Amino acid sequence: MEQFEHACMIRGDGGRTIRAILDQICNKWTLLIVATLDQGTVRFTELQQQIPGISQRMLTLTLRNLERDGLVARTVHAEVPPRVEYNLTGMGQSLLPPALALAGWAMEHVPHIEASRAAYGSRTG
C-alpha cells in the first residue's frame, strides 16, 4: 500500500482541490481541445470545426476554464471582425504526454472493455 501513498494525498482540504482539477482535465472536451491545440495556434471557429459534436457554448465554457487554469492562452486581435486565437501554454503542453498515454491505454484495452461490458450485460440483462 505504501507504493500508492502519493495517489492518496489529501493536501489538507479533503481532496477537493485535486478532484476539481482532475474533473476539469478529464473532461472529454478538455482532452479534445488540448489535443487539437497541439497543432499550434487555432482560431475559435477552426477549433469548433475540428472537434465534432462540440457546441459553441461548450467550447466557450471549456476554453474559459482552460484559460483560467493556465493551460490555454487566448489572444484577441483588434480587427473587424475581431480575431480570437488560442494556443497551449507550457503547462498545457505538459498535459499532452499523460493525456496521450491515457488515450493509448484506452485504445489498447477497448476490446477487453467491450467484452467485459457485454459479459456484464448478459449477466445482469
Describe the structure.
This protein is mostly helical. The protein has helices at residues 16-25, 28-37, 44-50, 56-68, 90-124; strands at 42-43, 72-77, 83-88. The protein is 60% helix and 11% strand. Strands 1-3-2 form a three-stranded antiparallel β-sheet. The protein is globular. The two termini are 36 Å apart.
List keywords for this structure.
125 residues; globular; mainly alpha; 5 helices; 3-stranded antiparallel beta sheet
What's the helix and strand layout?
Elements: H1 16-25, H2 28-37, E1 42-43, H3 44-50, H4 56-68, E2 72-77, E3 83-88, H5 90-124
Antiparallel strand pairs: 1-3, 2-3
What best-fitting shape do the alpha-carbon axes yield?
globular
Q: Segments where pLDDT lies below 50 for 5+ residues?
A: none
Total number of strands: 3
Assign the structural class, choosing from mainly alpha, mainly beta, alpha/beta, alpha+beta, or little secondary structure: mainly alpha
Secondary structure: helix percent: 55-70%
Strands across the major sheet, in which order? 1-3-2
Number of helices: 5
The whole-angstrom Rg is 18 Å
Q: Could you state the order of secondary-structure elements as H and E?
A: HHEHHEEH
Instruction: State the end-to-end CA separation.
Output: 36 Å
Average pLDDT, rounded to a whole number, is 89
Strand content: 5-15%
Q: Main sheet, how many strands, which sense, barrel?
A: 3 strands, antiparallel
* Quaternary state of the chains: single chain
